[in-house]
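[job 0412] stage=fold_complex status=start
inputs:
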Amino acid sequence: MDETADRILDAAFARIVEHGLRRTTMDDVARAAGLSRVTVYRRFSRKGDLIQALIMRELHRFLGEFEAAVGPLPTLADQVAEGFAVTLKGVRGHALLGRLLAGEPETILPHLTLEAGPYLKVAREHLAGHLRSPESEAVAEVFIRVTLSFLLTPDSVVPLSSDEEARAFAARHLVPLLP
Amino acid sequence: MDETADRILDAAFARIVEHGLRRTTMDDVARAAGLSRVTVYRRFSRKGDLIQALIMRELHRFLGEFEAAVGPLPTLADQVAEGFAVTLKGVRGHALLGRLLAGEPETILPHLTLEAGPYLKVAREHLAGHLRSPESEAVAEVFIRVTLSFLLTPDSVVPLSSDEEARAFAARHLVPLLP
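[job 0412] stage=fold_complex status=done
writing structure:
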């Protein structure tokens, strides 16, 4: 991603956190980025493309944090438990996700469900790299689906308010799926 | 649920399948049911309540089908595999869900995610009855979350186009979680 695209996405992120997705136009983003409309439209021809690029950039950023937390751990079981805890904390504390899910869920839910295929793919391939088996991608996908589900539907019989609880859940309910 | 409520929900179901959720008002439902607005509003004071009742009735109806398919099977592992296959087929072939997810996802997604707690609870308690262990509810919840996720985000590395594939997925990726 080039510098201009990054600058557009930075401006879009800040603008959407403050005003929401519905009340943010491509013109607003151009103005906030200090760029012309033409420059913005050359990078992102539709608002939907811009949002997709924004989510993808956040995902890659998060995978960096995930790696820093999970990479050094000795066993795969430790990595799964910590990875689940870190991801849950990451999505729960995410400024943009929190703002949109609370304030205008109908604008963000399609991206996190029906249109989430590309993000699921990136996360799955990343996670599968840790698992190293012919079934890695399917197992990784199940882990991601369960985690995403707790973001989409927080109501649960499972206690998940602390990192310890998150790790205990993963140890009991995800680790047995390891290849 | 009384007969009048059932008649209202029947009318709402048919009307929404044909015209969608956004273009269905409480007046439309009253007219389709051959009832007065007052009668409809006495049962369901808001459109949201009516939709919730509609989804809950469909869920109970489906749990009956689920039971008929799964109940006679000899082992818990068989029940999980068949239960997953039957549920996937049930949600994929559901006229109302299909219509709304394809045509106006933003109207139905909040019900299937952020507001899905009450449905998740009913399904979880039903499923946990089969599992019979102190951890039954948590395990049931994971099964339901994974299944719901395939409805919400169909894009997958897992082949799930036939009942055989669905059963194979469940045998490999859900059964190991049994208590």
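[job 0412] summary: The radius of gyration of chain A is 18 Å.
[job 0412] exit 0
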